[in-house]
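Late entry, uridine-5'-diphosphate complex.
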Amino acid sequence: MSATALRRVFILGVPVDDVTEEEACTFAERCLANGGVHQFATVNPEFIMAAQHNAAFMHVLQHTALNVPDGIGVLWAARRKGAPLRARVAGVDLMVRLCALAAQRGWRVFLLGAQPGVAARAAALLRERYPSLRVCGTFAGSPRPEEATEIVQYIRAAAPHLLFVAYGAPAQDLWLATYLPLLQTPEQGLIGMGVGGAFDFIAGVQRRAPKWVQRIGLEWFYRLVRQPWRWRRQRALVHFVWRVLREEVKL
Ligand code: UDP
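Prediction complete; structure with ligand written out below:
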């Protein structure tokens, strides 16, 4: 199933869907009702820049069912193209919202990735918040192919409806594109979503920017101050702005 009913904006070749969190949840319900497997991605400028040099990642992002705009830079670029997106949908916020919905609908969720113990801690905190949430498994593992057989067996046995994968981009998204089809069961739909550092935020291993910082679009800056080693990765943001502006001149 693709997000054909949703408006998509292409930013440097990467499709991004014009969705709110609520619409993304409605879309998820439709996916699960239809059965089959569906991959969601949370696209930010780092994704878009990585995809410029990584053809496999670009291919994955062009074939996901839903790409939510997770980054103020993505909203900025869409606005410059004259196709504004209505809202930023942060991966961690969508994950929590989907867990709330899962608790209501009885969907099983599986948390794969992050450092050992973090997924279990995040799951425990989510269950505290949504007592009827059915967490059918947590596992750190790693995106290395040697581990995939064991992980796939483990997830198949747990039969989740929602699989959140926290290996960072592009590893988590490439992992999902490769292994999601192997997790398909005929009787049940499955959504796989790469969520980056979401388990760290939910488990409290990393602190999120205060709401007002998020509102003014500076969450990326807050993260840079708290995790200065990220500066190399966040240079992508400068390259992103430059590429978007250069594309405009070419037009
Ligand atoms: N991670 C992992 N295995 C790996 C690489 C990363 O479990 O081989 C986890 C890491 O512990 C963190 C998440 O992947 O929980 C990625 O976080 P990051 O902040 O890099 O993601 P972003 O939100 O920037 O995409």
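Residues 211-250 form one domain. Will revisit in the morning.
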